[in-house]
Write a structure and sequence with these properties.
The protein contains five helices and five strands; from the N terminus they run E-H-E-H-E-E-H-E-H-H. It has 158 residues and is an alpha/beta fold. It has one domain: HybD-like (Rossmann fold, 3-Layer(aba) Sandwich), CATH 3.40.50.1450.
């Protein structure tokens, strides 16, 4: 299968405050100019519905919120290879995403994953928008994502 170079995938639920971080980031990135080798997708809370998208790319940059013991707004860039490499307390769609990753790994169709895990303090049910501590981190997070995406484009294309 001939795969596209890079997919940037924002994950989260917009109706749960900071848990929707990945979707907010994807929407901000969609407003920027990108080379044709980079696609951006608002993956919402999709699980197995995302499989065909993931299978179509060499590299997937995921952005997701995580409930962990780090300070809100802490950004960790992880290169997970196995399900157990993902943060133990990813957001509300954790089960579907981890099941998807495990299935794709077993089938040998999993692309290279680059995960930006952003620590949040809590999930705010029925709250649209981001907290100040998360909102303040967006420019730096977006810059890191853009830098990585450009690094992943094959050199013969750039």
């Amino acid at each position: 299968m001939n795969r596209m170079p890079v997919l940037i995938l924002g994950l989260g639920n917009l109706l749960m405050g900071d848990e929707g971080l990945g979707v907010h980031v994807a929407r901000a990135l969609e407003k920027m100019q990108w080379p044709e080798e980079v696609d951006i997708l608002d993956g919402g809370t999709g699980g197995f519905q995302l499989m065909s998208w993931l299978e179509s790319y060499e590299h997937v940059i995921m952005i997701d919120a995580t409930l962990d013991k780090n300070s809100p707004g802490t950004v960790r860039q992880i290169r997970p290879r196995f399900v157990q490499d993902y943060p133990s307390a990813m957001s509300t769609h954790e089960i579907g995403l981890k099941d998807l990753i495990q299935s794709m790994a077993l089938m040998g169709t999993l692309p290279e994953i680059h995960l930006f895990a952003v620590s949040i303090e809590e999930v705010q049910p029925l709250h649209i928008g981001l907290s100040t501590s998360i909102e303040e981190k967006l420019p730096d997070l977006i810059s890191q994502i853009r830098q990585l995406a450009y690094q992943l484009i094959p050199t013969e294309v750039v």
